Amino acid sequence: MAEAQTTIPAGSTTSGSIAVAAESTVATRMSAPPSYDVADFPVPHGREEEWRFTPLARLRGLHDGTATAGGPDLKVDITAPEGVTHELVDRDDPRVGKAGKPVDRVAAQAYSAFEKASVVTVPKETALTEPIRIRVHGEGGTAFGHQVVELGAFAEAVVVIDHTGDGVLAANVDYVLGDGAKLTVVSVQDWDDTAVHCGQHNALVGRDATFKSVVVTFGGDLVRLHPRIDYAGPGAEAELYGLYFTEQGQHQEHRLFVDHDTPNCRSHVTYKGALQGRDAHAVWIGDVLIQAAATGTDTYELNRNLVLTDGARVDSVPNLEIETGEIVGAGHASATGRFDDEQLFYLMARGIPADEARRLVVRGFFAELVQQIGLPDVEERLMNKIEAELEASAA
Q1: 334 within 8 A of 21, measured Cβ to Cβ
Q2: What is the pLDDT of residues 71-114, one digit of tens each?
Q3: Facing residues of 89 across strands?
């Protein structure tokens, strides 16, 4: 299994080229600064750093302004425990966009085109014992959306966002955590095979707050997600986990950015993917920036990919940029490879058929991430989905 890894111990700095997988590059930069205005972003042509892996022709016009909302409505259903409020607000509501501005043309288009933003609020010092569930179901139309989840100080919540059905969706999601709050978000992309989904996920993590994100991507013709972390105070922590299973012809792209601009904050990223089928294409970009003011930072990011068949392609690029030597630690790693023959031989030598041994290896590969969810019904559903994907490939 090929691997590229860089680790910078406490008190050290780095300079020169950054170790990456797939190709050598420096930390990626967007072609335009963040903005709410679509006009501030040029129409991409595929040569730009942030678009070079994305098949623009499959975006259904989300990138060039030709996509317009219409067709069957996107259905959004929210189930929340008592005490949680849910509102539909206009874009001038101060909570909308508080967690971060759009960073590319599609996100700006989504911001300028949504009609009403959905705001879910958990009051301060409220510890929910049941998850908030947001179900998003497409029926073939084109839609733009904006979702806000806000936790007051010392509140605790789990949010599950489920995407199913067909259609074209561009949406921004904001997570705003007050001081000492704890939020776990599970975002599942289980679209039909012809769906297109682009989303920017912005998290603003307050002082001593903890944010955990689990992004799961199975379906869709094209899924392009952009999780981003910003810190609003020292002592904040962010854990970003991701699981994707890319099938024949699918394009699944996850582009992460963690902006350490505040002292004594922590981030940890682990994304894992499996690919099978001709022209299955997965892209993972992991950018971590430690600014000069972010002394005491502790960060690490990891991406691993398991290629199950010929004809699949992975682009994995971890980037780490450090502007101060006064850190606890920083590092990144990426690895892509096929099944470990020794693992398969070990299982088959004990009487386990080859297909079953293959399933066991993949289940073990993903089990660590699925267990981060902490909701038995969601965990069981995802493991069953992985089993179904493997059975379909073996048929």
Answers
A1: yes
A2: 998 999 999 999 999 999 999 999 999 999 999 999 999 999 99
A3: 117
* C-alpha to C-alpha distance for 164 and 146, rounded to whole angstroms: 17
Contact 188, 163 (CB under 8 A): yes
CB 348 within 8 A of CB 354: yes
Q: HSE-up of 380 (CA within 13 Å, CB side)?
A: 3
Query: Does pLDDT of 69 surpass 70?
Result: yes
**267, 238 Cβ separation under 8 angstroms:** yes
Query: Which residues are 177's β-sheet partners?
Result: 151, 205
Residue 318, helix vs strand vs coil: strand
Q: Is 391 exposed, middle or buried (0-12, 13-18, 19+ CB in 10 A)?
A: exposed
CB 95 within 8 A of CB 85: no
CA-to-CA distance for 289 and 230, rounded, in angstroms?
11
Contact 69, 113 (CB under 8 A): yes
Range list of β-strands (E), 32-181: 75-79, 85-89, 117-122, 132-151, 156-177
Going by their DSSP bridges, the two strands 222-231 and 132-151 should be labelled as unpaired
| Distances from the Cα of 174 to the Cα of 121, 149, 227, 250, 262, angstroms | 12, 6, 10, 27, 19
Query: What is the model's pTM?
Result: 0.90
Digit-coded pLDDT (tens) for 125-144: 999 999 999 999 999 999 99
Place of tokens 């605790």: 156
Q: Are 142 and 115 in contact (CB under 8 A)?
A: no
Cα 245 to its chain centre, rounded Å, is 13
Assigned token pair, 217: 């991507």
DSSP, collapsed to helix, strand or coil, labels residue 161 as: strand
pLDDT exceeds cutoff 60 at 24: no
Query: SS3 for 300?
Result: strand
Is there a contact between 254 and 284 (Cβ–Cβ < 8 Å)? yes
The Cα 4–Cα 375 span in angstroms is 33
What is the residue type of 328? Answer: V
Residue 20 corresponds to which tokens in the numbers above?
Answer: 């990456």
Q: Which of 238, 81, 110, 130 is nearest to 175 (CA)?
A: 238
**What type of residue sits at position 252?**
Q
- Give the DSSP H/E element, type plus range, for residue 319: strand 313-322
